[in-house]
Model the fold of this input.
Amino acid sequence: MLSRAHPRYESLVLRDKIVKASKEGYLADSAMIAHGRGEAFDYLLGEETTLPAKRAMYVTVALMILSKNPVISVNGNTTALAIDEVIEFAKAVNAKIEINLFYRTDERVDKITKLYKDHGYPEILGSNDDDMAYINEIKNPRASASKNGIYIADTVLVPLEDGDRAEILSKSGKNIITIDLNPLSRTSKRSDVSIVDNVVRALPFMTKIVDDLKSQPITYLKKIIEEFDNEANLKESLDLFKIKGEIK
Ligand code: PTJ
Done:
């Protein structure tokens, strides 16, 4: 039993979720390594949502609202850490959710499909009986996508993603948005909008701002998207690591 009084309580809760999910058999073998890397970056960031992350999230929500077919791609780690937050955000912006695994096995996909159903989201895409196609006609499991989801999407949010997938998607002409605590990752660099934040903070933050942005004129949403410079925003995120990493 974790004690709320522990100074690292929140972080331990996330570790616990990852350990539990690993035991349940739906995480990749390397999921804990990916989580540990994320933890280290988050620690250096002060475990806070930064201004550049918030800016990228406003752009993300604006893009999702204006898109015809927005899709959120989910893997094992995102499901373990934030399944309910993913579902809430998808519902708020009317996006579909698609399972897309780097280390895809039928067993993992079945377990994740069941979890989304158990959490009240039976319409999950990318399951084993879904109709799949290949993005950019690349015959590679990393390029497979649901014909009703990522394949026809105009905007794809890929939280906690690996570089290969982001690269294939970024060449597809879709708007690619990532949530990745590492501003130097291939994923962050290749995406159109990179949110340098923890998925567990970013998803609820975005759900919270949906109503406000939906009430704004379309011209305003287009303006914040047009004015956004991902490279400059990533540089700003990186600078914050240095500042927050100083020993006081
Ligand atoms: O479930 P699968 O088969 O799709 O596999 C998922 C993992 C995450 C194992 C796979 O995609 C992978 O190996 O990813 P990478 O290459 O380790 O990249 C994961 C990225 O997510 C790293 O840049 C981490 O810093 C970052 N990250 C880890 N935890 C979080 C995170 N970013 C945001 N929030 C987190 N909680």
Summary: The chain has a mean pLDDT of 94. The chain has one domain: 51-240. The two ends are 33 Å apart (CA to CA). Strands lie at 70-74, 96-99, 132-134, 144-146, 155-159, 175-179, 193-195.
